[in-house]
Write a structure and sequence with these properties.
mainly alpha, 2 domains, two-stranded antiparallel sheet, 6% strand, elongated
Length: 160
């Protein structure tokens, strides 16, 4: 039997909870892992077109500029800030606190100079008045502390 024939037969035989991967693999004489891959292809396709379709549409429609610049989707989605706020700051290309240039691109979110949204007053919410676009390394150093705390740490490091 050809590979395509085996694939179709595996999909016909597989019934979750009754005639699982192991039984199908034994009947067809192929690996259980291969049966699982073949049977899950259809499942993943159905899931992608139903459960996750809306999320993908939201990402595509809300954040084309930010996505192209390497901005994390979750940062824009959960912040409650208007898209224009992000675009304006990303186009400037520098951190609002340090003046360091952002690293932009597909893998930018991994680096220390990736753009991130910071709250000027921790726990103050993401509003245009309380938010600023900063480099990731500053945001992580600040965490839930104040700007003054980061300055004190920086001065101590310089004295070293």
């Amino acid at each position: 039997m050809s590979r395509d024939g085996l694939k179709e037969r595996a999909r016909e035989l597989y019934v979750p909870g009754k005639f699982g991967y192991k039984k199908v693999a034994a009947v067809l004489g192929i690996s259980r892992v291969q049966v699982a891959r073949w049977c899950n292809e259809d499942y993943r396709k159905r899931q992608n077109f139903s459960k996750y379709a809306k999320r993908r549409e939201d990402r595509a429609s809300l954040l084309p500029a930010e996505k192209a610049r390497g901005m994390k989707y979750s940062q824009a989605k959960f912040s409650g800030l208007p898209i224009e706020w992000f675009i304006e700051r990303l186009e400037r290309g520098v951190c609002e606190v340090t003046g360091l240039p952002f690293t932009l691109g597909a893998d930018a979110y991994k680096g220390p100079y990736a753009p991130e949204v910071d709250q000027r007053v921790p726990q103050g919410g993401y509003t245009p008045e309380n938010a600023q676009m900063v480099v990731r390394i500053y945001n992580q150093a600040k965490s839930n502390f104040s700007h003054e705390d980061v300055l004190a740490l920086s001065k101590a490091l310089l004295k070293g």
